[in-house]
Amino acid sequence: MSLLDIGGGLGGIQHALFERGLNQATHVDASSAYLRAAESEANRRIFTERIEFLKGDFVDLAKNISPADIVTLDRVICCYDDMQSLVKLSAEKAKMIYGLVFPRDLWLFRVLLPIVNFIISLTGTPFRIFIHRSEDVNRLLMEEGLLPVFHQSAGFWQILVFDRK
Fold first, then answer.
1. Domains in the chain and their CATH numbers?
2. Residues 6 or more apart in contact with residue 25 via CB below 8 angstroms
3. Residues 6+ apart with CB under 8 A from 107
4. CB 3.0–4.6 Å: which of 14, 42, 94, 127 could bond 98 by disulfide?
5. Percent of the chain, pLDDT > 90?
């Protein structure tokens, strides 16, 4: 089995799946710091040779990335303004399973989001948080031939898994 972990952060998903039989992973992240930390942890766990680390914006890199059996986006959609491109291009890469974690689309979160983004802007970082409509994400994934098989809410977050039939 192969994994494409978009916004893989420290590599937790990859490491958990390697311990359960995953053969190969591609880790894409825009953060050099996360990639260095993930590579260091992969080296410690002796997984480095089975992971391809790619720095950059997945949407920009997508045409050069191979499909994988499993595609994951853990808390990535909420950090990306062009959700449609991200979801469509990443869904095209999923041969079997597509999993994602992103904020629930609740009115309270929509009310609080501008305040949170204002506070973040005071730090001088360009980072912002986005809440995308769950229906829009689901529709895009189903248009790419993926069907929902699991959904769970956990506080601010929702966890979804789709399967390619």
1. 2-164 (3.40.50.150)
2. 2, 3, 4, 5, 14, 17, 18, 47, 50, 51, 52, 68
3. none
4. 94
5. 92
